[in-house]
## 1
Amino acid sequence: MKEIPNKPKSQKKNQTPQTFWSRRRFIQASAVGGLAITALKVTGYQYKDLFSTLHHLSATEGAILFSVVEAMLPDNANKTPKVIQRHVKAIDQYLFGIPKEDIRQIHLLLYGLEHATVSMGFSIFRFSSLSVQKRRQFLSWWQTSSIGLLRLGLESLKSMVFMAYYRTADAFRSIGYPGPIAPGFTGPEASRKRYSRLLAPPEKEPGWS
Amino acid sequence: MIYTSTNIKRDMVLKADLCVIGSGAGGSPVAWTAAKQGKRVVVLEAGHFWQPKDFTQLEHEMFPRLYHDSGGRATKDKAVHIHQGKGVGGSTLHNINLCGRVPKKVEAYWREEHTLTGLSEKTLKSTYQEIEKHIRVSRLTESQLNGNNLVFKRGVDALGYKGGYLQHNRHGCAQSGFCELGCPFDAKQNALRSFIAPAVESGAMVLADTWATRLVYQGPKVVGVQATVREPVTGKSLHQVTIHADVFCVSASATGSAALLLRSDIPDPYRLVGSRLFIHPAVAVAGIFRETLNSWSGIPQSYECTEFMDFSHGAAHRVWLLPAFAHPVGASSILSGFGPEHAKYMKDYAHMASFGAVVHDETPGSVRPKGEFGVDIRYWPDVADRKQMVLGLREASRIMLAAGAKKALIPFAKTMELTSIKEIDKRLSALEINKFDLNITAVHPMGTVWMGDEPARSCVSAYGKYHHMDNLFVSDTSLFPSSLGAPPQLTTYTLGLHIGRHIMSML
């Protein structure tokens, strides 16, 4: 059998790209790159920077909610990051009226959802790292789960997302809904005057005259 | 005058003849009765003072303003949503203006079980008449049926079911369809317009944004109520207010009143307060029609079906059927699914009808206080009431298809589509409803501090006087010894007037 000699060291300096990218090197590079992307998907959050000023949710929760909104909206909805950011901020604003205990449960829900894709064996990636299609698939599984808490979780997410979306002019247009019948209407004049008279001026303290 | 958190800049103590806690249908006639007789009346109201000019007709703005927990209040396990109002005027700011007296059989049951000395049939009837005149109750007519109600009536008529036009307390109505978000036209003859405003014009003082947290008592006498002024948007606690008065009337709703009494450790030797909560749980069926209905527009509920409404206690049929449509945020939350699956239903929004099935329930739930301001509501319909819900889904679907709907949609986790009446019994007869199967909503919490003659079996007398205290009254839906089986505002106003007159005999 003819022996294949090792390349002498002096010949390595003269390698071309074609010779550098051997099959072994290509496989090694792909594996490293894949691991890097996986690490990013496992540890990093896209769009987290958009949510540094939320009142009730952390930036991470904002990013998770972003991925929920993106998955739950209709296909014909405007899903640019700026628009979805507005939806997430609207949800955050809405939480002012919600009891603190319920807001704590929303924190748990968002983190729970984010990691449930891995813990429940659906994917090796977290929820927000999945494609929209995969996210919808996972949420559908929650929707029809025999576990009541998962169905409740899905409905809670849905009510927040649709509160944010179906308040917009775009959504109104898509369903043929005209919105307020009298935007900016300040009420019949007689009523306005009557109620204005009842309201104490800001500097007046309660007391009997 | 009406004061809000803007006016109350420090802790304060006020003295009055009468302190009324809650400005809704129960408390407002009490305050009005005393104020117009020259008494010093303070009304505490947890919600803000919203005027018609503040009603923007946008759900995301008005739910936080007009509803407790921004419309997200629910039972402890979140299985049933319970919508309750806040604001000067209480739930009458956002209600649909339905007016109905207590059904005869329900009244008979109340008298049989609890006697109700002091509230004779004659007194009740004459007080109803006074209230109906005061809040301008009238029966709606065919010209006031919107798209949703027209198809509902069409279906009821096609099936030969019993039905009729509803009574309302609206005057000068523009038929905008935004009743649930507050009327910008001030057409509702509600607690704010009909009782609170005149009470304030007679000298009553209303402290809005002011949450009563505890009654203080010495022996059998309540001597004061402690309250916290809160910022209306964030809920941040600002200042403390204490009201001393000769008489106190708690009108904070069936959940709020019970929670306040329990939080205050008011004597309750038979441990009754907070039990026997009834709510009229409701489910809905949607339908898609070929014709354009624009169901969001016009008077939301003008026609009812009473075919399955028997008011006898324990009756086999206890379901009230009527139109029940929601604006986009509400409707989208009730319909199943999300993404493209959900969008395919919402794209037919202009062709959509929706009917509700409200159960005259017999399940006794309970209320407990939660923290300083909240309520812990425990309620899950028992087997019998869930069977009524299934009956309601069946018959609402039947009416929908009889009216000509292309399909009826029952919003389970996976929408059930029915395209023929034959399918209804086949697919729904053996149905069981479990928690989180579909949206169950209630808007009429009742009971919890109910009236009766015997202290061992009731909490207050038929004059609303708490059995175990000398100067404490209750006036709201918590008075009802059972589910009412009718829209509660008229009866609540009526009992409020009756109680207000009795309180006057003490002042």
## 2
Amino acid sequence: MSKVVGIDLGTTNSLVAYVQDGVPVVIRGTGGDALVPSVVSAAVDGTIYVGREAERRLLTEANRTVYSVKRFMGKGIEDVRDEARLFPFRVGGPAPTAGEDGPGAPESKTGVVRIGLGEREFTPPEISAFILRELKHRAEAFFTARGEVEPDVDRAVITVPAYFNDAQRTATRDAGRIAGLEVLRIINEPTAASLAYGLDKKHDGLIAVYDLGGGTFDISILRVEDGVFQVLSTNGDTHLGGDDIDLLLTTQVLEDLARRAPGPRSPEAIQAVRKAVIQAKVDLSERDETEIVVPLDSGAAGPGASVEPTPPMYRSRLTRAALEALIAPIVDRTLAPCRQALADAGLTPGHIGEVVLVGGSTRIPLVRRQVAGLFGRAPHTELNPDEVVALGAAVQADILMTGNRDVLLLDVTPLSLGIETMGGVTSKIILRNSTIPATGSEMFTTAVDSQTAVDIHVVQGERELVADSRSLARFKLRGIPPMPAGLPRVQVQFQIDANGILSVTATELRTGIGQAIDVKPSYGLTDEQVEQMLLDSFEHAEADVEARLLIEARNEAESVIAATEKAIRAPEFAEIARTELAEGEQKRIASVLAGLKMVLGSTDRETIQKWTHALNDATQHLAEVIMNRSVQGALAGKNVDDVT
Amino acid sequence: MSSPAPVRTVQICRSCGGGAPVDVHFCPQCTKILTLGRHGDYFSYLGVPRKLNLDIVELEQKFRSLSRHFHPDYFYNATPAERRASLERSSYLNDAYRTIRLPISRIGYLLELEGFGTTSPGSASKEVPPALLEEVFALNEELDAARDLRREGAPAEGWQERLQRARQPIEAKRDAHELQLQELSARWDALVDANAGDQERRAVLGALRERVLERNYINNLLAGIERELTT
């Protein structure tokens, strides 16, 4: 049987995990890395890069590289217009279509965001699908290497922030479908994390899961009893995370840079700053002080720059105290949702027995202190906060496939579901924090004689007015039997499934006729669009495989080049060359090395591989010599670095 | 499908065509999960008596146990009909549990079930319940006075204190209502235990309905004062 995996599709990084002999395990890449950066980049020749390679390209091809795409999932262009300016890639939307809807429905004229990737434009689910495909391939390569008979991965559980609305969940499911995955289930990240911790095995009680990731914040309160993980309430902010901290720091450094060296900055220079401040942020979780170091390209340094030895560097010290002062408002924004979630569950902090931290941003000491302060207890940090969500997703995938009834997840819908009524007021049908699956129903009738269709506007959110809520979709009920106004009784059933995704059915009660419903998602894709994208991706599948093989060939070539250059630059190389290498050997290594470097940039995979093998062959003797010397050095009680 | 089953006591299994009592969830013949066709009310579905003082621990246990039987997670590899049945039964279970878990919505549901119409907060009448006329009249006078003070630019402490004072009698009334609701709930349960006649039951339900509507009205008033205080 083909394999089933759990996927954490994160803002910053994504992971894939599976269950082996009852234990969830993260699947690592060939380099041992668990995280796949959620970055996608397009080369001029159309090749798509995902992960580390794409992340590297942020420093060289910033405007052909997309990151943090999760922030755009299920969004319309007017939601993201301000934010889009901060990204090096193009963010746009379809041109407004005039006269489509009546007044009071401006959002229906926009639709889903488009993101420029190289020369082409993609929707956020398509960009996410590139990342999912990368994870799928990683898992398949892993299963193939293990000699599995059927290494194919075609089904997955994918996680989303608990506070994701219907459009964001649907967009995630669409991404899975476009990537050729059957999405068994969408589950909430904090809930997945609690599964991974196996807290049911410890003891029954109340748990708070605090999940601060790259772009989103969630708090979930759960009751665990007899193996049932019942979410009592959830709250959060789908626009709050480590990204915001990075942005603050980046802005600060750019302002400082502008004072020291005025002049315009290239997108690549801004990305170099972003990379440096992220490193500094990470450092300060371990240390009290660090230095932000940014290499300056000569163009960016400008004429006013001080004269320094090459290469010019921007350097600036940053203390943990200064960082904490800067980010305190961001961390504070997580506390109100925590209090709201407690109140919705009818609890006070004292009731909470265990606190679990999830997401890379919870490594920040200030975050840990604030959480400990709020709940009055030290949080769990045993599991890697980057990996715990994917592990939980794998557990859930295993439950779905095996039907194992030891554990059961009962989640809730994070936002109230309602419909627009007279005067633009929201009438709530399913309240937030209702256990899912859940249903609700509402009766509709007609306003004029012989009316055969009724429009229904479905919204999500806690506000009274439709204008303040999130538009989900417009439904048109058609085929109502012609009757005098007010006589038809159309019962509309709203069903939220275990994924937290809405579906709608309708029946005219007098005739018992099921009503046809046209769905127009406000910020989503129609089924037809998703199907087309899936077909497109099949057409590109062959090209994708070729692109992947090319990337692998380049990676291998790069590692051989790096090893060779390291050997040549080593202080003892001169002596080795003089005493141990045959005549012409050094020269041959140098020429093959130069040749491989020359073909490295080409798209001809076979040539790259040929030269890589040639360099391997040419350096084989050298490698043996170095190995022998290092063994001898070790025997003589010396480190190889000391042997000169 | 052809057997002339007594109305409302039997449901039909879509898998084997057999009949099953209305409050069971799995077919006694073929053991498959039953499509949610004819079904009981929230109380009977959860297997608890139609009473207002429920053992909450027992209710939670029943909810968890039924969830373990129905949840869509366990029907992933089942037939489409079983998957749909699992979704329908789980949804109905969750709706049932949510509705009768808290005392006030439990009372509201019982009233609806017994034909006393809806008492949801949204349906609260705009007319002042007769039992509250005196308090509401006094409150409105205080509210007007406080609003005047505010409009004239009086210091916040002044009119805020008036508002706080104005809501005290209403809050006292609400506390009294809670006690009355508890007392009426106990009477209803006793009537159920005694298998009492329709007339006695309807009298208690009618009184419950009046208290609930008054309670809704009071809550709306208090929410209004809260809004004035915070905006």
